[in-house]
């Protein structure tokens, strides 16, 4: 039987019969990096990514000390050759610079979404549909129970949480990942004139966003041992809520911003509220997206692969989870 055009090789995704890896975390000869979240990046001999992703990677990984890395910046919708492959990037709408990749070989187009958010966000390029024959789609929220309310509704609920806390004399603390989630809520609040203070880790990522044309007009870094002003909102990554930089933040009222909030706030310790603000597509959006690409064959990866593949099969699409043994069976 023929091998699929993409395979899992020692836990890393690779375009079959080529040296092109996708979001490899171990060092490889050549990798496309869809975006700069930690579980998608590594130091490679050659890295293909958007300018913004390369800048965010440099910020997160620092400059290599010994073996140099060759960076190949790529723009959206500008096809280029790599050996016998033609590559083209499409915006993924997940975080700044996030991209999907379409690889065309012998007239067959293989699409890889990376992490995908089809609903417009406040701090990433709007996702584009990537027409292809074979699609590899992420399935983080690929279970039917993950249906997110409209983003505007969620943002209004966060705004109400913030206003209520402030009128009670408490400091609203919003917990979100340093790259992507933090910028989305900051963009929303700061553009609305709400003054914000951020953990220094978030502030450093904001600087990269600002260098790429996304300003945050009312945002300052938390100063050591100095609390926020009475009307300021604090934004911090969840794992740093008790870090020294947050020492001066008293009378907190805390909310976490994550798609997993659909599972209920009881799953999050030490928070007063949880809001399903996600930078991933929910289940209906993933199904809609896979259909919109026109792909006749779909492989699901990362998350609820079985449930999403089953849903796509119900839609008449040949779909299956991409697993290491899938490749062995198909050879
Ligand atoms: Zn991600």
From TrEMBL:
It holds the Pfam family Lactamase_B_2. InterPro entries: MBL (IPR050698), Metallo-B-lactamas (IPR001279), RibonucZ/Hydroxyglut_hydro (IPR036866). It comes from Anaeromyxobacter oryzae. Keywords: Ligase. SUPFAM superfamilies: Metallo-hydrolase/oxidoreductase. Signal peptide: none annotated. GO terms for molecular function: ligase activity. This is DNA ligase-associated DEXH box helicase. Residues 22-146 form the Metallo-beta-lactamase domain.
């Amino acid at each position: 039987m023929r091998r699929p055009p993409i395979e899992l090789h020692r836990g890393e995704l690779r375009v079959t019969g080529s040296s092109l890896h996708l979001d490899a975390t171990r060092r490889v000869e050549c990798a496309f990096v869809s975006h700069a979240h930690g579980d998608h990046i590594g130091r490679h001999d050659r890295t293909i990514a958007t300018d913004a992703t390369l800048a965010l990677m440099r910020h997160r990984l620092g400059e290599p000390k010994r073996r140099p890395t060759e960076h190949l910046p790529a723009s959206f919708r500008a096809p280029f050759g790599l050996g016998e492959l033609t590559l083209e990037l499409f915006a993924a709408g997940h975080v700044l610079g996030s991209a999907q990749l379409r690889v065309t070989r012998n007239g067959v187009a293989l699409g890889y979404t990376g992490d995908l958010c089809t609903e417009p966000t406040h701090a990433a390029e709007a996702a584009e549909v990537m027409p292809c024959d074979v699609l590899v789609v992420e399935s983080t929220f690929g279970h039917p129970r993950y249906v997110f309310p409209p983003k505007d509704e969620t943002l209004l609920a966060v705004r109400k949480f913030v206003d209520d806390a402030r009128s009670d004399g408490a400091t609203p603390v919003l917990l979100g990942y340093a790259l992507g989630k933090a910028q989305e809520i900051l963009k929303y609040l700061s553009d609305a004139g709400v003054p914000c203070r951020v953990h220094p880790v978030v502030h450093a990522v904001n600087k990269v966003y600002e260098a790429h044309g996304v300003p945050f007009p009312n945002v300052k870094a938390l100063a050591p041992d100095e609390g926020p002003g009475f009307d300021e909102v604090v934004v911090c990554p969840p794992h740093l809520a008790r870090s020294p930089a947050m020492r001066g933040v008293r009378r907190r009222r805390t909310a976490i911003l994550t798609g997993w909030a659909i599972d209920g706030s009881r799953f999050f310790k030490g928070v007063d509220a949880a809001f399903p603000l996600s930078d991933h597509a929910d289940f209906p959006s993933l199904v809609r997206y896979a259909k919109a690409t026109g792909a006749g064959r779909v492989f699901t990866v990362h998350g609820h692969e079985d449930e999403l593949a089953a849903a796509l099969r119900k839609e008449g699409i040949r779909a299956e989870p991409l697993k290491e043994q899938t490749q062995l069976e198909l050879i």
